[in-house]
Amino acid sequence: MNITTDIFYVGVNDHTTDLFEGQFPIPNGMSYNSYVILDEKVAVLDTVDRNFTEEWLGNVREALAGRKPDYLVVHHMEPDHAANIANFVRAYPEVTIAASAKAFTMMEQFFPDTEFPNRLVLANGSVLELGKHSLTFLAAPMVHWPEVMVSFDSCDHILFSADAFGKFGALDVDEPWDDEARRYYIGIVGKHGVPTQTLLKKAASLDIHRICPLHGPALTEDLSHYLNLYQTWSSYEPEESGIVIAYTSVYGNTAQAVRLLADSLIAKGCQKVAVYDLCRCDMSAAVADAFRYDRLVLATTTYYNNVFPFMSDFLQRLTERNLQKRKVALIENGSWGPLAAKQMKEKLSGCKNLQFAEQEVRIRSALNAESREAVERLAEELA
Ligand code: FEO
Questions:
Q1: Ligand 1 mean position, distance from CA 373 (Å)
Q2: Half-sphere exposure of 252 (CA within 13 A, CB side)
Q3: pLDDT tens by residue, 13-45
Q4: Neighbouring residues of 346: CB distance < 8 A, sequence distance ≥ 6
């Protein structure tokens, strides 16, 4: 597949893995992108997941059309992209690997039995001349690992962006970009908003016509749409007005309060109300929506003087991704000694710029007239 006249896509689609990185459901698969630049010198950009070695080597061989690669460029050492470095060196022993110093350290760790004698160590600002194409490398630490570099081809104005601007979903599945790119960014890179902002500032100085990430489609039109979303996500600003209600319920009573609240919010004109049963939903979708919308309701049972396990997991995922700049409301249930609201607040105490709703709802076992009124008052406050 041609990206431009002399840049070729040689990646693969994965429809066999159920959980990406062992935790993110990928119902529409995943792509591991790799590119070949044919110029006076030939460069292969990144490898693919270990389960696709032969398919990828075949794609590379076809794109090379009988030529030998001069360089294997390694933007990122995570195994979804780097698993085949040793196999590539075995297939093309004369190739020079171009990567950051940290990437070479990781390469030795991942492949203790392989020698990598031909090395080009890249630093921020390094330039790899291929002929009419030249790649300028920019360090992008923590987007998503510390060794990451992105590169810019000044000939075709392409940013090879590593994990940034990637998405879940294989390339042979047609689906909108935003939702699966948001779930991917928030889930995988969301903790690293500040480094992502640094990368965006560097990118702003480049005349980019196309973004080629390591996952998902090459982005060619209306690049400001993608750049603006990354600006929003990495600065932790809510993307739009809406309410997420995330809950756990043991015997259905907390769920009943959640339904009452959701119905009341909708009746009051709230157009976007997303409800997640944390015990049964894709938690990564709930996390992504918690960062998407500007209001979040957490409803859970007191459990061992703490909060129910799935809510505990959800809160950990939110806090380790630096949830901030949101309004948060709390609903707790407890048949004796309810403590969940207090515990949830404590778990969120390190989050910046959270505004807690004045109205808290306490359910004693099941809804009664008093707690129903509290739910209604909360709906009024949130709407
Ligand atoms: Fe797609 Fe951080 O690897």
A1: 48
A2: 0
A3: 999 999 999 999 999 999 999 999 999 999 999
A4: none
